[in-house]
Amino acid sequence: SGPGQVRFAHSDITVPDFNDYRRRDAQDPNKPAVSSDVSRKAFSYMLVGGCAVTCAYAAKNVVQDLVTTMSASADVLALAKIEVKLAEIPEGKSVTIKWRGKPLFVRHRTDEEVNEVRAVDHNTLRDPEPDEIRVQKPEWLVLIGVCTHLGCVPIANAGDYGGYYCPCHGSHYDASGRLRKGPAPYNLEVPEYTFPDEETLIVG
């Protein structure tokens, strides 16, 4: 048999041309890679920035859908306001209405009650408030019927001052809903309300 042959160079192998897949600024073999560094980084930054914008837009849509789902429905919003017919409340009487899960006191005050609460020096009270800033009309008092001590429901037309009396711990409020005696720290809360006309009260 003849002697074996050893090939030291594969000169007959053709190397594929990848220039079609390389960027134009990187095709020159004599040009250092650092010279095209800025353009290559610009492309990377643009790609990352585009992905960030897309992700932010998708996140916004997810949050928006979540907030919309958690928003109160039309029937719940309707309960947020309540309409009271004032003609049904005689002078000197107080009615209790359920509003947002809490008792709402609407009192038709007499002239005597108005004069009595306005004769009091409000600066001597624990929670000093003049009657004038607690009502929009002198004859109508609107309060949230929750004692500011521990959340009990006071009794209307009761107590030492003819207003409201909390049977739980003995807090007394006058006909303006202001604390006059007892452990409660504050006056009864006045909610937001309006009078669209002379015969109607809207609370909320």
Automatic annotation (TrEMBL):
It comes from the Eukaryota. Keywords: 2Fe-2S, Disulfide bond, Electron transport, Iron, Iron-sulfur, Membrane, Metal-binding, Mitochondrion, Respiratory chain, Transmembrane, Transmembrane helix, Transport. Residues 104-202 form the Rieske domain. GO terms for molecular function: 2 iron, 2 sulfur cluster binding; metal ion binding; quinol-cytochrome-c reductase activity. InterPro entries: bc1_Rieske_TM_sf, Rieske_2Fe-2S, Rieske_2Fe-2S_sf, Rieske_Fe-S_prot, Rieske_Fe-S_prot_C, Rieske_TM, Ubiquinol_cyt_c_Rdtase_Fe-S-su. Its EC number is 7.1.1.8. It is a single-pass membrane protein. Its cofactor is [2Fe-2S] cluster. It catalyses: a quinol + 2 Fe(III)-[cytochrome c](out) = a quinone + 2 Fe(II)-[cytochrome c](out) + 2 H(+)(out). Gene3D superfamilies: Rieske [2Fe-2S] iron-sulphur domain, Ubiquinol cytochrome reductase, transmembrane domain. GO terms for cellular component: mitochondrial inner membrane. CDD domains: Rieske_cytochrome_bc1. Belongs to the Rieske iron-sulfur protein family. This is Cytochrome b-c1 complex subunit Rieske, mitochondrial.
